[in-house]
Amino acid sequence: MKVMIFVCGEGLGHTSRCISIGRELVSAGHDVHFGAYGYSKELIERKGFKTHEVPSEITLVGKAGSLNLKKSILATFKRGQFLGLIKIRKLLKRNRPDLVISDSYFMGMLSAKSRGIPCYLIVNQSNMEEFFRGKGVSSKIVAELVKKSYTGMFKIVDKVIIPDYPMPYTICRKNLEFKENTWKKVFFTGPLIGKTFDETTAMELERPHVLCTVGGFGYREPIFRKVIEAAALDNSINYTLLSGPSVDPASLGTLPENVTILKFIDDQFPYMKASDLVIAPGGHSTMMEALSFGVPMITVPDLKHNEQQNNAFVIEEDGLGKKIDYSTSPEEILENIRLLIHDDKYKSKLTEMRKMAEELNGPRAMRLLVEERKSR
């Protein structure tokens, strides 16, 4: 079966879960092609997949730690990116896939349907209009347009894929809102991650160990530095912090002996398996990875980013971790770290989530769904 996977490149969470689908499909003998752009395309190519350049779809605009979705939509229209539909249609005409899987890349979905190709749409949010609520009349109008667009898209796709645990364990559940007819085509795969717990060999790290993926660039730098300050308050806990390629570790001054700074790691799963805690923003894919490995989380969602805020709220509500913000002190961060590392009730809950992820086997569930269409 020939499958085309389109990936939204705004955030590598979309990329990582699509790579897991591609790997599973290829291992079963299917012909898989990717449509991607930017660093997402480079990463997919490095994994050895057939990859095609596609136009970027969304221009993200924001400052001071918050995303301005209204300005992002306007900037996207001004760049004329939706004219890329013509390019995508030509790509589909050349490759003639049996099925299109589009991870939040709506040009791919619209182009597929315009050519009569079945399409599965992957999303972990269906209520983007939440970004605009309470922000003035113009924002309210944009919110209604966004909601109508989403409703129409969900109506025409063949399946709506949620890469999360099934209800009531769904982490993104506060971000999901569908009409009754759409719910009938919703499918929860379970976490779609690049490696399973059993496939991963843990790094040799000093325990207890904290993996921090917040990054030290831009508006996230203050919380990054606070984690370093928290580390200095208790040298019995060890840390690996990912600073990002734009940050020179030397600029951070003298580091505590229990802190290691890395700019980037190509494969974070060995670190995750060797860690007792993950500190990360509120991105959905990182949450799925941590939970699949049975690791509790401290989440630092971006300001005014409703999706991340909702995800982080569920993590705390379900007893899987703690939610903090940019005003949290180093002392409070350390208090939460100690709690999550040493409290047995968190360990027990996270073990349940890891075992559930193993049973669900998201990539396999997605492959079986794809093959079910072939057998029709």
Automatic annotation (TrEMBL):
CDD domains, A to Z: GT28_MurG (cd03785)
Start and end residues of each Glycosyl transferase family 28 C-terminal domain: 257-355
Gene3D superfamilies: Glycogen Phosphorylase B (3.40.50.2000)
Family matches, as InterPro entries: Glyco_trans_28_C (IPR007235)
Pfam families: Glyco_tran_28_C, Glyco_trans_1_3
Gene Ontology MF terms in the entry: hexosyltransferase activity
Family: Belongs to the glycosyltransferase 28 family.
Name of the protein in its database record: Glycosyltransferase
Species of origin: Methanolobus sediminis
